[in-house]
Amino acid sequence: MKRPLQVTLLVLSGLGLLHGSLFTDLYLRYVKQGMRPLLIGSGVLLLVLGAAEAWSWRTRHDGHEGHGDGHGHDGDGHVHDHSGVPKVAWLLFLPALSLLFYAPPALGAYTASREPAKAVTEQKQEDFDPLPTASPLPITLRDFTRRVQQDRSRAIDGRTLLMTGFVTPAEGGDGWDLTRIMLSCCAADAQSVKVRIHGVTAPPADTWVTVTGTWHTGGTLGTRSAQVALDARAVRKVARPANGYTDALPLAPS
Amino acid sequence: MQTTAEVAVADASAGDDVPVRGWPRYWPLLLLAAAALPGLALFTLGRWGDEPALRAWRTVCLAIVMQAMPFLLLGTALSGAINAFVPARVFSRVLPRRPALAVPVASAAGVVLPGCECASVPVANSLIGRGVTPAAAFAFLLSAPAVNPVVLTATAIAFPGSPAMVLARLLASLATAAVMGWLWLFLGREQWLKPAVRHTGHRPGHSRWTEFRQGFQHDFLHAGGFLVVGAMAAATFNVAVPRSVLDTFSGSPWLSVLFLAALAILLAVCSEADAFVAASLTGFSPLARLTFMVVGPMVDLKLIALQAGTFGRAFAARFSAATTVVAILCSTLIGGMLL
């Protein structure tokens, strides 16, 4: 790999990272929010490396032509070291260019439909606080799953609930899935939470919606046999949240 | 599409020779092809790249690269700094004279070289070139990418709330490195090794800063390229292999250990990022994931290629095969006790 190409590669990678983390929120499609400072630092570091390489290449060129002394020999040695950069380094152009010009979207219905729903953690009975009295009650998908399958006080029964997620067409059976994808580290370890929605025809896949409704009777509430499902009364399209990989509470209805 | 592209490449390479003897008569056609083909290829690629499966593939691929990038930069910068600012004689002075003692010390010394496996191969080579016994250098080569603070920190981040995993990774990697060093001492033959060619480290008459920058840049470009390969392989696996296949392997404890060991060799993820990949392999037992993280930094496709280039093919084949077996045994034993 020639030295000007190495400079281009370093600068493009740096710009790509800065574009994705500092100037836009693209990075939220791939990694967690806490990575932002590290990504910005990496982008700056790569730009500095690229600039240093360009500087040393230029000054060496000038010196080489100006003096033609023993410097030239050393320079040749360096060129040898650098041609040792294997061809595989070319592949680094792919993520850099992809971030700059062809950034893939966040994971959505395709990934969620191919994965079994994530098992929610067990919660102790006494940790189930009384539900707030608001109606409709905003609730996260994970909380809803826990309330339906683990809360033996059946506080969720008869309540009107409000949940936000994106649409995943269901493969078998009636209805569709309201879905959230969560990351433990980056998009490679995505796991999904799903709530089956009944009573309303499915909007197109990957649409972000807020659903209002009540628990869909099926199985015994408060046990594992209870269906994690909702009888929807209303479905409203909402904007995709900035950080889609969380199971945040829906905004209060306007 | 592919045949057209091949023809175009053939045309282009033929065209390279032609201008010496003057332009061919059909040069406008070549010019047209040169203008139209890349556009067409980009368009097709764009259409094809928007299929849901490919979009998911690109997302996962980019996610792994982004997640690993800061760690890769940190590792290669530190290894460049140690290479330029710490004289290699420090390593040979610290090591005991008796090779059998030098092996465990060298494998523990791996803790201080934060770098990924691509960085440790040239360092081990230069150590051998400066008179460190090969057994100790190999113990160092194996342990350094797996037990250094950067990798252990990444492991702790990837497995929040399970410090036993970090400890098990540390111990199993140290044990594997020491066992392999002793094995080399008793069974290894010098003639399997290609003579050391390139020496790294500070050379008199050169600016240390320039050496640092060049080492850093070289290691980063080198390792970064292999990182993209690893990310692509991992993303392919992530998107293409249905969960049910994983489940058949994850069901049986022994098969899952062997399966993830093989996967670590095939995926060739950088040791600074492999903990995150391991964390994503939900459904596998912690023991199998530990094996993935112990085997991965020591044996994988890109390492075998690097070792064959540096030490020779005869060495790489024997060394990698033995290391795989020892690593699986060590991680099973230590993981069985700790996890």
Automatic annotation (TrEMBL), chain A:
It holds the Pfam family DUF1980_C. The keyword Transmembrane helix applies. InterPro entries: DUF1980 (IPR015402), DUF1980_C (IPR048447), UPF0703_membrane_permease (IPR052955). The chain crosses the membrane at residues 39-57, 88-110. Residues 157-245 form the DUF1980 domain. Keywords: Membrane, Transmembrane, Transmembrane helix. This is TIGR03943 family protein. It comes from Streptomyces luteolifulvus.
From TrEMBL, chain B:
Pfam families: ArsP_1 (PF03773). InterPro entries: DUF318, UPF0718. The chain crosses the membrane at residues 26-48, 60-86, 135-159, 166-187, 220-241, 253-269, 275-295, 315-338. One of its GO terms (cellular component) is plasma membrane. It comes from the Bacteria. Belongs to the UPF0718 family. PANTHER family: UPF0718 PROTEIN YCGR. This is Permease. It comes from Streptomyces luteolifulvus. The lineage of its organism: Bacteria, Bacillati, Actinomycetota, Actinomycetes, Kitasatosporales.
